[in-house]
Design a protein that fits this description.
There is one protein chain. The chain has 2 helices and 7 strands. With about 160 residues, the chain is α+β, with helices and mostly antiparallel strands. It has a 5-stranded antiparallel beta sheet with strand order 6-5-4-1-7, with no helix packed on it.
Length: about 160
């Protein structure tokens, strides 16, 4: 009986059915795939990192007043005695800050506004310009904060520990 089931005709029919099933399966897979898409490659954007400068307060007019006409001493004429290496604190600006400039003299560019109570080290000076004594200051906490400031708003303080 087994010989009757696996005769040549049955094998040919089984192979034909198997071939048709494979063809149907292949067609199904082919037809269910999404159509190939053409992808246009667009160059990616170039990112440029710009490092922001140290934040500063707006530039305010914090320069000392000129001498008064009645002969009294103006605030800008009261000078403090400092030495290189001394530490000073910004004071008396009424929380408006002190203009720190690129050179001694009010005609020089304002580099930053030193905040009330900010600490600086004296690196150079005094230089007399425009009736004021100017000192070159550098922040011990941020070496990017430096420049020339009038001594009217500087208070000597002990070296920080």
């Amino acid at each position: 009986m087994i010989k009757q089931i696996f005769n040549t005709r049955t094998i040919i029919i089984a192979l034909a059915v198997w071939g048709v099933l494979c063809a149907v399966l292949a067609a199904g897979i082919f037809l269910t795939q999404p159509a190939a898409q053409v992808i246009n490659v667009v160059p990616s954007a170039v990112v440029t990192v710009i490092v922001a400068p140290t934040p500063t307060l707006p530039v305010l007019n914090t320069e000392p007043a000129p001498s008064t006409s009645n002969g009294t001493e103006a605030p800008g004429e009261t000078h403090i005695l400092l030495n290189k290496g001394d530490f000073v604190q910004i004071t008396g600006t009424e929380n408006q800050g002190l203009s720190v400039r690129s050179g001694p003299g009010t005609e020089n560019k304002v580099l930053l506004i030193a905040t009330e109570d900010e600490l600086f080290e004296v690196k150079d000076g005094p230089v007399s310009a425009g009736g004021y004594n100017w000192w070159y200051l550098v922040s011990p906490r941020d070496s990017n904060r430096f420049g020339w400031a009038v001594d009217e708003f500087l208070k000597p303080v002990p070296k920080p520990q």
